[in-house]
Write a structure and sequence with these properties.
With 310 residues, the chain is an alpha/beta fold. The chain has eleven helices and 13 strands. The two termini are 35 Å apart. 44% of the residues are buried.
Length: 310
């Protein structure tokens, strides 16, 4: 049985759709009900901080996908992520299940050049330190031969139904409503984004290939563009003037005084004012998969998420 921890989030939902379309028995685990109804799919309530609840909810699991997201607060991350990771490791050992952890790139810190699976950990943020800690904890268990597990990493994403990502909410949504876009950081720098359906499909593919276990993978992601190119692409798609406002660090700091989530983005601002080049060639070569182009991804979104002016 495929078991998704942290069900209801963007990547978890995309993975769920892949499992449903391929008729896999799937259990969704989260603190709140998930509005997905399909044959062979059930939901179990569990708090990932509670080992006994987690153990019961994952009964019968053969592969566990950890796709959880926490409130974007570094103090909460410091307190909760190590507990969650240890609970999930213990549960995977108990059930003798494979474990696939969906991760980000915060542990790499500021990288001069492409980020690859071999990039060393050099976090320059508290959230990056937490991510480095839990990733190391997991892979140490793998090296010790205690479980079969892999880490699947993605860049910043776009294409979430919740529209809570940077590119979705500040650029695409604004242009879809005839508003001026906002760009975080330096629009002359390179950046890339993982398309949510590609992330879910990538997680599914890794789940179908046990030989991919015990290593790190970067999920399929199109090559980087400059901020100007992303803005122009969105403007063309929505037939809007390519007008935008640049959001600098000072603006973020001021807004963060009134909003904890925005405050949490300040320490990650380095990702926006330096080149951010996420490389997924290892995955693409191993599985013969190409990421969705930004042109196709944004076009698809304009015809689905944004067509009704959401």
């Amino acid at each position: 049985m495929h078991t998704i921890l942290g069900a209801g989030g963007p990547i978890a939902n995309a993975l769920t759709r892949e499992l449903i379309s391929n008729n896999h028995r799937t259990r969704l685990v989260s603190r709140r009900p998930v509005n997905i109804s399909a044959p062979n799919v059930d939901w179990q309530k569990a708090d990932l901080l509670n080992y006994q609840q987690l153990k019961q909810a994952t009964e019968g699991a053969t592969i566990i996908y950890l796709c959880a997201g926490l409130v974007y607060d570094k103090d909460i991350w410091k307190q909760q992520w190590p507990v969650i990771m240890q609970n999930v490791i213990n549960v995977a050992k108990h059930h003798q299940a494979r474990l696939l952890f969906f991760d980000n790139v915060y542990m790499y810190g500021l990288v001069d050049g492409p980020m690859t699976e071999d990039t060393p950990y050099n976090p320059i943020s508290v959230k990056g330190e937490v991510r480095a800690q839990i990733a190391t904890t997991l892979m140490n268990e793998v090296k010790a031969g205690n479980l079969k597990a892999s880490i699947a990493r993605a860049a910043d994403f776009y294409g979430a139904e919740s529209l809570n990502s940077f590119y979705d909410s500040m650029v695409l949504l604004n242009y879809s409503k005839g508003k001026r876009a906002q760009w975080m950081g330096d629009p002359n720098k390179l950046h890339n984004f993982t398309y949510v359906p590609d992330g879910g499909r990538g997680m599914y593919i890794l789940g179908q290939h046990p030989e991919s276990d015990n290593q790190i993978w970067h999920l399929p992601t199109a090559p980087p563009l400059t901020g100007h190119q992303f803005i122009e692409l969105a403007a063309r798609t929505f037939d809007a003037p390519a007008k935008y406002m640049r959001i600098n660090k000072l603006i973020l700091r001021m807004a963060g005084m009134f909003n904890k989530v925005i405050q949490g983005t300040v320490e990650m601002y380095y990702q926006c004012d330096h080149n951010y080049n996420f490389n997924s060639s290892k995955f693409e070569k191993a599985f013969g998969v190409q990421p969705t182009s930004y042109q196709d991804g944004v076009k698809d979104l304009s015809q689905t998420l944004f067509k009704s002016g959401k």
